Amino acid sequence: MVLSMDRWVGKVAIVTGASSGIGAVIAEQLVDNGLQVVALARRKDRLHELAVKLAGKKGKVYPVKADLSKEEDILNAFKWTKENVGPVHILINNAGTTDRVRLTDASTESYNKIIQLNVIGLCIATREAVRDMKANNVDGHIIHINSVLGHQVLGFPSSVYSASKFAVTALAETLRLELNSLKSKIKITVRLN
């Protein structure tokens, strides 16, 4: 089955963690398909490079500096998007972090950093996207980029990373049930990287 992106042409997508890796590739694919992509990340220079690289494509990138571990940055990014680009139709929660430290050796600071970005930041961005979609009668789509470690614990050091990704799996299912109970047409998808 081939899915068409035609329904999303000209619509607004927010991609978190868009300055490199999977996030940058997702942003590029969306721009190639004609979407208006608000690319969020901490590294403004990398976002600017992405915008320059994708200039002249069917869609457009709007680079917005935002640290997804900070609620104020997330709220400001959504406010900027509403005021400058339009209502959100797609949210791709891609931003995430890990460490390579054993659970028993990691610092509390490391635990907090991972949970704050991978879980709390994702929740805040999701909440803001759903609020915007509801306010604008948008049957949107939210996609959480997850990991196999959100479904199975493997035998290598990753502190609380796997726990944070299991949380993403549970949060997606919780949101699916909530949206279904509200008879909402907003979709939620979890993609493994």
UniProtKB/TrEMBL annotation:
Protein name stated in the entry: Farnesol dehydrogenase
Superkingdom of the organism of origin: Eukaryota
Family: Belongs to the short-chain dehydrogenases/reductases (SDR) family.
Keywords from the named record: Oxidoreductase
GO molecular function: oxidoreductase activity, acting on the CH-OH group of donors, NAD or NADP as acceptor
InterPro entries: NAD(P)-bd_dom_sf (IPR036291), Sc_DH/Rdtase_CS (IPR020904), SDR_fam (IPR002347)
Provenance organism: Rhamnusium bicolor
